[in-house]
Protein: NTP transferase domain-containing protein
Amino acid sequence: MLDVEFDAVVVAGGGGRRLGGVDKAMVVLEGVTFLDRVLRAVANAQQTVVVGPVRSTYREVEWTQEDPPGGGPVAGLAAGLQHGQAPTVVVLSCDLPWVTAADVTRLLSTIDQYDGCGLRDSDGREQWLAAAYKRTALTAAIQRLGDPRNQSVRRLTADLDLFWTEPNHAGDDVDTWADLDD
Structure:
């Protein structure tokens, strides 16, 4: 067991348009909602904040939303970073149902040499919302952007020194119903 203090920010405010407007966080896979699956992966966080509307979860978490709501994932990240103070922040989107605590440990074990460490999905795509970041680096990147509303996460992280894992299933997000069949 890796002994690294970290906070978790779970981004769960998207509209799920490609899922027909279904709340992704509450989609159930093998009897557990996507949100609870992600929360289990970060169960060892010092503090966990979920950015999005309050929902029922298997454990207590803090809740926040960007102001105004609907400003996108970078605005959500900025709101989430206002909570906690651990030097490392694990950022996960709620649509990563296959991420586990072991994946989070792998990210945390590599971050020392970098500004952040992230998962790649099965196709090799970098998943910026499936990563561990040094809080100072992520906070500085948000400050450089200015207004975080409707900014891309790729642009946010463009100047950060990031390490990416080998492609794996843990980094696969669910944007469409077909993604569950993979």
